[in-house]
Amino acid sequence: MAKKISAYAKNKQGEYILNQHKPSQLKKFYIWNVLKMKQESPEEYEKLTFYSTQADKQYRARMTPVKNGFFRYIENMKGGNNEDGDNESISHSTAISVLSEFSEITFVIGKKSYQLKFTEFFIEPRLQFENRNVYYPDLIGCFSSECDLSEKWNGKVAIEVAVNHKCEPKKIKDFFAHNIPIIEVTLTKKMIFLKEFQNESYDSKDVEKYYNFLKTIFKNQVYGKILSDPISANYYVEELKLKQMELNNII
Asked: How far from 150 is each of 100, 146, 185, CA to CA, in Å?
C-alpha cells in the first residue's frame, strides 16, 4: 500500500486549491494538518477531496487520510515510478516532499559540492521514450540559469530517492540516451523512518517529527550520486570557446 504524507485537494466546485504564497502552484496538504482539521473543523474537512501529487493531472487519484499518519489511495494507483517497494514507504514519500520544497539545494557528490537552484519541481512525471519504455522519476527539477550544472545538463535533472532499492541500469541507460541526468539520493539507516521499518505503531505526530528531521538535514546539504551525466551541445560549444581563448592567450 502506497503511503503519502501530502496530497492536493479540490473544493466542492472541483477546483484545485492553490498555494496562497505561490499562486502558480497547488497547495500541499500535509497529513498532520488534515487529521487535525478533520477533528477540529469537520465542516471544512468535508468540503475537500484529496488527490495524489503527480505532475500529470490525468494520473492523479483520490486519496484518503489514515489515522496512522499517511494518505492512501482510494482506488487503484494510476501510475507510479517504481515496482520495487520504495514508493510505499513513509521515508520515500517524505524525502520527495522535502526535496521538492527547496528552491536551492547543496548536493555533495563525491569530493565535489554543487549549488543547485530550482525554479520548480515536477513530482512523478510520466516519461515515455520512443522505445516505449515508461518511467516515473521521483522528481524532475528545473534549474535557474544561474546555478551549477544548469548549462551542462540543459536546465533539468531527475532526482531519485533510494531507500532499499537502487535505480535500475536499464533506467539509467535510457535517461542518459535521452539527455536526462540523474542524481540518486540514498537514505541511510540513520535517515529512515525507523518506526515504520521496525513495525512499530506510529501516528501523524511521529510523521511530522520525521518530516522536520529530514528537512533540517537536507537544508544544509544532500549527499547524492550522479548516475546519468549527459552533456548538452551548448555546453560543448562554450567549453570549446574557453579552450580557444586559453590557446589564444598562450600564443
From this structure: 17, 7, 19
